[in-house]
Design brief:
It is built from three helices and two strands; from the N terminus they run αβαβα. It is mainly α.
């Protein structure tokens, strides 16, 4: 398991715990992963681990990597 996937699971565990502590329904909080400066090869394993929502602020980067990722992983945003 890569570092990015381990970090994803660690952050997700913190969010899950915070939801429980706040009395919120599981899944009420959406994690938006920042993918700028990471290429598709780095992002793919995180998607496979369960991350579905990503933020990108560099249009040129997004145009280069997201069409193929969205085709390979339907349902990602």
């Amino acid at each position: 398991m890569g570092d990015a996937v381990q970090q994803f699971f660690a952050v997700k565990a913190k969010i899950d715990a915070a939801e429980r502590e706040a009395g919120r329904e599981a899944g009420a909080v959406t994690l938006v992963a920042v993918s700028k400066t990471f290429d598709a090869a780095d992002i793919g394993p995180v998607i496979e681990a369960g991350q579905r929502v990503f933020g990108e602020n560099r249009v040129q980067e997004a145009q280069a990597k997201w069409p193929d990722l969205k085709e390979a992983f339907p349902g990602i945003e």
